[in-house]
Write a structure and sequence with these properties.
Chain lengths: ~200, ~200
DNA sequence: TTGAAGTGATGACTTAAATCAAGAAAATAT
DNA sequence: ATATTTTCTTGATTTAAGTCATCACTTCAA
């Protein structure tokens, strides 16, 4: 179990550029709870308030919505060292429109909004990390907005260059849904790309 | 000129839920510079590092890219009480891929990255505001990602419900570009929506 | 006050991607 | 090992939205 936290502490220190004191580590260890989810198990279901935020130690998950026609749309694919939550629901305590489901056996360290507020106040490295993640989120959001004007090929090429490991790790129909394409279209794009 | 700052101070206090001291206000007044841009004037040109962040006191602007075919794509439309910058370029000091242009006569209060760092350290209300804006950005980014799967009609309906004043304020071809649609398509959608 | 530029509407046509359908291949379970 | 989902491919067809072309209407500037 300790090793889970070591990876977590390393992550905080690396992102923030600051060291955690022993007291900091004790506080985090006391409040972050280790949790395992089996493949296909839900971390969050549509309509529920997302009470937890999870740090992924091992495994992967998808965040998706289901439209009126019953079609699923993946908004996010999450892997190790990423945070797992619906930020809107988590921050505002409103019912979520999203589902979050484990795609592989998932090991996370989870905590609540109130606890996070405490870490932000008491742990400088945690607060610095939070600010940097927000910055990165803002930048990523800016980039994603550009994708509106991209063709199917361009979206795929962008994924290949930004997240090449996703292609190995996730089935093609998940990738297609993440890119907002039908799986048939993605299959054809890959065929053409080989030439 | 003072009135510009009064609106700015009100904004910080409202968003942060905290009061600014006289010292805080003096520090902000000393470092934020009032600037006017005429209609069509550029706040940022593609290839330049975005050295400034501007708080819009009056007027509006668009953030856009130009693709290989010479077509412009609007990523953001900004109005009063919004921040004007390319966050990626501003935070990371990298050359920007965006252009930011005044759509109407524009009055802003602007400052540099280094100065912002100072405000974050010295002014609690400013730091609280920054965190809340980051939260809102993260939430907005999550929402925007959903738009990938939306049809032309759905994107338009979303705009109507979220930013109805944009429809009055900006020409239809700008709105179309912002939604990632051709102006002909938007014209047809509006015609159908009337029925 | 009259061009000129910018904006918006509409019709005809084209194209990118979705949908529908059927098999093949791979992964998982019994 | 074999059945049974699940995933992936390929072809035929449909559909949503883009492109091209033209005309009307408005602003704005000389």
């Amino acid at each position: 179990m300790m090793s889970n936290f070591e990876a977590f502490f390393d992550y905080i220190q690396k992102i923030s550029g600051q060291l955690l004191s022993e007291d900091d580590k004790d506080l985090l260890t006391a409040h972050f709870k280790a949790r395992k989810l089996r493949k296909r198990q839900y971390f969050l279901q549509e309509g529920d308030v997302c009470k937890y935020i999870g740090f992924i130690v091992k495994g992967s998950a998808r965040t998706f919505t289901v439209d009126e026609k019953g079609h699923e749309h993946i908004l996010k694919l999450s892997v190790e060292n990423w945070w797992l939550t619906d930020f809107e629901s988590f921050y505002l305590l409103t019912p979520s429109r999203f589902n979050i489901e484990a795609l592989e056996e998932l090991e996370i360290l989870q905590s609540t909004n109130a606890e996070i507020e405490e870490f932000l106040k008491k742990i400088p490295a945690f607060s610095a990390m939070s600010n940097i993640i927000s910055q990165n989120n803002t930048i990523a959001a800016q980039k994603r907005m550009q994708a509106i004007n991209y063709s199917a090929e361009e979206r795929y090429e962008e994924l290949v260059s930004n997240y090449p490991h996703f292609l190995q790790r996730f089935p093609q129909n998940m990738i297609a849904s993440y890119l907002g394409l039908s799986s048939e279209t993605l299959s054809r794009i890959k065929k053409n790309a080989l030439k």
